[in-house]
Amino acid sequence: MRISDKPASDGRVPANERPGLSGPASRGLPVPPRERKPALAALAVLLILGGALATTLLVLRSGDRVSAVGIVQRVGAGQLIPASAMKEVEIADTGVDYVPWRFRGEVEKTYAAVTLLPGTLLTNPMVTRSSEELGPGKAIVGLSLKAGQAPVGMGKGDVVQVIYVPASGKGSAEQRVLAPAARVHGIGAPGRSGGGLVSIVVDASISPVVAAYASSGEIALAVLPGAG
What we know:
Blueprint: H1 38-62, E1 65-71, E2 86-92, H2 104-107, E3 111-112, E4 127-128, E5 138-144, E6 159-164, E7 176-187, E8 197-203, H3 207-215, E9 219-223
Antiparallel strand pairs: 1-2, 3-4, 5-8, 6-7, 6-9, 7-8
């Protein structure tokens, strides 16, 4: 027996060969066109433009430079800030409260509120218009020290103990601390070599005693590291 490929005699096409009528699964619902949201698209564009603008401003601002006061030599707390301790430094404008170089003349009239170290960029909180070290109740006493009466390397701004060291032949006299924390105000004297010339800031109440012992060579200084 042979299967015939001829269509049915009545001219109808079998159901399984009719195009588009293969079953419910092949019948898809019409897809509506995608709804466009112009507001969201505009917002995205604005965000992109805003980010690009912010980046551009940051790049441009990073190139802004300002002149600030830099410290090149140690200035002890309470000391007048000399011109020799300052230099002009070019830095990026980061918004930090650095003292502008154009105000260096005013800085020379101020005192260090804290010990200033070389390499420091000066800010306003680091300076003060008055100094407790040199204010009322204080006195500057000059000393002429010999070798061994002060440590090597002692410098301006150091905090020292002022010690009475009795001369030999004074019997039962004992050494004692006259000032537990005095500030070295200067080393040397104008127009003279440094030698053993030192000026210190002490309480006015003990300055006569310190001056008297200093005149007889019975004063020694001991530096207090880390007390500045």
